[in-house]
Amino acid sequence: MDTNTEPQVAVGVEGVTNNIMGDQEVLVVTQKHQHYPLPIIPALYSKLLLLVVLPVGGFLMPVFHNEETGTSSFSGLQYLHVCVWAVVMLLTWYIKGEHKNSRILGYHDFYNSTRHLHRTTFYIMSGGNVILMVLACLVRDYCMGGSVSRCSVNISLSPVNYQQITFLLEVVIAIPFVIKHIVFVVRFNAAAAPPDTLADDLAFRISGPESYVGVRGPSSLEWVLERQADLLQVLRHRNSLLTQQVFSLTQQLEQS
Question: Where are the transmembrane segments (predicted)?
Fold first, then answer.
């Protein structure tokens, strides 16, 4: 005897066929408590590797750079940063899309807890681009020497040194966020929890603990409205899937 207690949604159709034993066949669409892991661990490790490559390349390129190539060490480091920033942007776009899919599948709590982590590295490196652009203008206007010559008599730092400092600051600020993001995703995948919309305490999650007190502030009201909007988006997504499945089953019945 089957003791499975998973929630099921019966889909009614006009034509119902009988099998050999004479029992009616009922088309049922099941809603399983299934976990949907996030496949972004390789992308996060790639982002972490790029953050390590950036300062390493920033210190090695001036050492092994050949001026006969037609570009200075300063320009080479600018190109290096832009290339790393472009790859990080693509990884961020992919990770953001996977988080959005996870939200549509019903993982609202996890999405809200990581909604800023997957974009932080991109924002930090974009800020680094702005700093390097301003630095390039200052070097052109006030530094008459080469890229490895110091610009000031009082400060023994060359334009390349300022670039290296910028790279280090970016990496020191961004790496903790990437590591935190990796830890969150690993724990999320290991927990193998079902979507929030299938949780037993769904009503409590929507209303929040303040509903039991009877007083709700403006910030709590905004939180409730946001959660309701998330749930509506999930219901629309699942309704679309159920509609497609009903249409497919109806076609199979018409052909049989």
Answer: 44-64, 76-95, 122-142, 162-179
Q: Which two tokens stand for residue 16?
A: 């119902």
Contacts of 168 (CB under 8 A, 6+ apart): 55, 58
Give the pLDDT of residue 250: 83
DSSP 8-state secondary structure symbol assigned to residue 10: E
Locus of tokens 């990496």: 171
Query: Six-digit token pair at 40?
Result: 């972004």
Structure tokens at 64: 């092994």
3 pLDDT more than 90: no
Contacts of 55 (CB under 8 A, 6+ apart): 164, 167, 168, 171
Per domain, the residue ranges of the chain are 8-34+198-255, 41-193
Nearest Cα to Cα of residue 178 among 102, 248, 107, 91: 91
* 3-state SS, one letter per residue, for 172-188: HHHHHHHHHHHHHHHHH
CB 112 within 8 Å of CB 208: no
- Three-state DSSP class for 23? coil
What is the 3-state composition of the chain as percent helix, strand, coil, each rounded to the nearest 5? Answer: 70, 5, 30
- With contact defined as beta carbons under 8 Å apart, do 92 and 115 qualify? no
- Specify the range with the lowest mean pLDDT, choosing from 126-130, 222-226, 244-248: 222-226
